[in-house]
Each structure stands twice: as C-alpha cells, then as structure tokens.
Design goal:
Blueprint lengths: L4 H16 L3 E6 L5 H13 L3 E3 L3 H9 L16 E6 L5 H12 L4 E7 L4 E2 L1 H8 L4 H38 L1
C-alpha cells in the first residue's frame, strides 16, 4: 500500500527532528529478521534510550538534506532494507545495542553510521564504538577514581586507629 504524500511529509519531519538531535545514528540491514525479533530489538533499544526506526532510505536522505550538519554527508551506503538506531543522549548506545543484538541474531548486519557532526562512520568504526563503555559506566569509573584517594586515606587512618587501640588495650592488660 502506497504512503500518501502527507504521511511522507510527516515522516520526514519526524526524521528531521530525530536526526537533528542525534549524537549517533547507526544503520543495519535486517533482512531475515522476524517481526518478533524486531520487537525484541526495539525493547532492548528502548531500555538503553535508543530509538529504532524502519523507514525508506529515500525519506532518510530527504530528512538529512534538510539538516545543515548532514547536508553534505555521503548517503550512498543507504541501500537495501535498513533500520536506523538513533540516540540523542549517548554516542555509544546505538552501536552497542545493535552489536549486542547482532551477536545473537546473525541476520542483522551493521552497515555503518553517522556521527552527530555529520561524519560517515564505517562498519569497523561502529564495531569499535560498540566496544566502548557507556556514558554511565565512564561516569562511574571517574567517580570511583576520584573517591579512591579518600577511601585509601580513611582505610589508612582506621588501620592506625585500630593499631593504637590494640596497643592501649595490651598495655592496660
């Protein structure tokens, strides 16, 4: 069934809004995935703050043409049945969601992506990006590093305090 011109304009407007706020967009071929598989992928993506869109590549090209950052981006890689994973809050999340899902569903093949600055990203770059820790994990590591001197100081002082109390206890006995 053909999509009406109004519906196409609405889809392009939604895509333009989604892509203009995106930190990273990753696209992958999904030939052979069942509807249940795609629903499972959408659920996993939603939990990570990632939006999964399945739209015609031509509509994505039109939406990208309307965004200054993507205006000169090469879109020749947008061929075949593609789904798009987009996140406006985490650069790593779309790549890691699709990479994790592709490990258990070999029909999903990551093709490439676009950075928030409009740069094309190859499949290898997406795989490398997927291997990075998430934003939350990085923040937790930084906080742990910042707290480690405090923890070490408290441990050292409490150890000396216990030694002092033990010495006093043995002297009194």
């Amino acid at each position: 069934m053909a999509i009406t011109k109004f519906k196409k304009q609405s889809l392009v407007a939604d895509l333009t809004e989604l892509l203009s706020s995106a930190k990273t967009t990753v696209y992958a071929q999904y030939n052979g995935l069942t509807v249940a598989d795609v629903q499972e992928l959408r659920k996993l993506a939603r939990e990570q703050g990632v939006t999964i869109k399945i739209v015609k590549n031509r509509l994505v090209r039109v939406a990208m043409g309307e965004i200054a950052v993507y205006k000169d981006t090469d879109t020749t890689g947008l061929t075949g049945q593609l789904l798009y994973a987009v996140s406006d809050s985490d650069e790593v999340a779309p790549a890691s969601v699709l990479d994790k899902f592709a490990k258990t569903h070999e029909m999903l093949k990551i093709q490439g992506g676009f950075s928030g600055e409009g740069r094309n990203m190859s499949e290898a770059e997406i795989k490398d990006l997927a291997g990075l820790p998430s934003k939350e994990q990085l923040i937790a590591e930084v906080v742990a590093q910042l707290l480690s001197p405090v923890t070490d100081t408290v441990s050292g002082l409490s150890g000396n305090l216990h030694g002092l109390l033990d010495a006093i206890a043995t002297k009194n006995s």
